[in-house]
Amino acid sequence: MDRDNQTTVTEFLLLGLSGQSEQEDILFGLFLGMYLVTIIGNFLIVLAISSDSHLHTPMYFFLANLSCVDICFSSVTTPKMLVNHILGSKSISYMECMIQIYFFITFTNMDGFFLSVMAYDRYVAICCPLHYTMIMKPKLCMLLVVASWVITNLHALLHTLLMAQLAYCFNNTVHHFFCDPYAILKLSCSSTFINDLMVFTVGGLVFLTPFTCIIISYAYILSNVLKLPSAHGIRKTFSTCGSHLTVVSLFYGAILGVYMRPSSSYSVQDTVATVIFTVVTPLVNPFIYSLRNHDMQRALRKLISVSRIRKF
Predict the structure, then answer these.
(1) Crossing angle of helices 294-311/281-291, nearest 10°?
(2) Which range is most confident: 234-243, 268-277, 285-294?
(3) Tens-digit pLDDT profile for residues 14-58
(4) So what's the pLDDT on residue 269?
(5) What is this structure's pTM?
(6) Phi, psi (deg, nearest 5) at residue 13
(7) Which end of the chain is more exposed for a tag (fewer CB within 10 A), N or C?
(8) First-to-last CA distance in the chain?
(9) Buried b or exposed e, range 14-42, using 16+ CB within 10 angstroms
(10) Which of 169, 191, 190 is nearest to 8 (CA)?
(11) What is the pLDDT of residues 108-129, one digit of tens each?
(12) Are 24 and 16 in contact (CB under 8 A)?
């Protein structure tokens, strides 16, 4: 491969979600509002959990980490689009694009790993309640978080380095609002066989392992719940897991439809599914977990009341 060809493209042009300026103005306001709500909502969850000693449990520890990841996840893609709109520009440098791809892959997989860890936590709480405190020790919780960070960063580094080896000769127009890995792969004028192979092997392993863990955890939970004699117990159990299942469905439903196939089949229509898990899922997480959780509601009310007292 001729290394010099890679310097032909020094920047990419992000066309966004619409080619019409009127629609872009509307989308700017919509994305700005969603981004601000995402940051504020997830930040409030982190503050509420850290300030309320009753929420210092493994489940809320993982939820706080998930909220931190969602803040970072949203900040990888949306701010660049907003800044470009304000400046009247559509460009992103080659280096910025590679950095965006790296963190996009990292935080996408981090979301999956934390959702998997939370599913395991619910499995232990429901199926092994007497041994919950013995199993979900702080040391294990911290180990799961650290392992998730290490695995996802190494995986992102592998894919980013492979993408950096590709040649981008002429076309630098990206039909997206950020440097989506598949959208960038389609622009390469060199073979992407190794990249696609890594997506289906290493990428598939890193992505499907937590997804499989979630399926297995809920299979055991469902089996255990169906043995309960009372309908109240069944409703209570599903109420506990309902928020998590909703987020899992949104997140994995969108990703499976976009990335579990060759990059050559990626189309502009896939940007809609990408928006769901890059923008919508981090946005709705705080509402899903707070509206259906009385402990979170109590902690948020306490946090707001304390802030008002300090204000006056």
Answers:
(1) 100
(2) 285-294
(3) 987 766 667 788 888 999 999 999 999 999 999 989 988 888 999
(4) 59
(5) 0.87
(6) -110, 115
(7) C
(8) 67
(9) bbbbeeeeeebeebbeebbebbebbbebb
(10) 169
(11) 999 999 999 999 998 998 888 8
(12) yes
243-246: long-range contacts (C-beta < 8 A, 24 or more apart)?
243/288, 243/289, 243/292, 243/293, 244/115, 244/118, 244/119, 244/122, 245/218, 246/288
Tokens 């469905």 — which residue?
249
d(CA 7, CA 95): 11
CA–CA distance, 110 with 145 (Å, rounded to integer): 9
Residue type, 57: T
Question: Does the pLDDT at position 3 exceed 60?
Answer: no
For 73, half-sphere exposure in the C-beta direction (CA atoms, 13 angstrom radius) is 28
With tokens 């601000």, the residue in question is 36
DSSP alpha helices (H): ranges in 165-293?
181-185, 193-198, 204-225, 231-259, 270-275, 281-291
Q: Quickly count: other Cβ atoms within 10 Å of residue 101's Cβ.
A: 23
- Cα distances (Å, whole numbers) of residue 63 to 34, 85, 185, 236, 291: 20, 33, 33, 20, 14
Please answer whether residues 295 and 55 qualify as being in contact, where contact means their C-beta atoms are separated by less than 8 angstroms: yes
Residue 153 main-chain phi, psi, to 5 deg: -70, -40
CA distance 188 to 6: 9
Q: Are 44 and 15 in contact (CB under 8 A)?
A: no
Kindly list the strands in the beta sheet with 11-14, ordered across the sheet, starting from the edge strand earlier in the chain. 91-93, 11-14, 173-174
pLDDT at position 272 is: 72
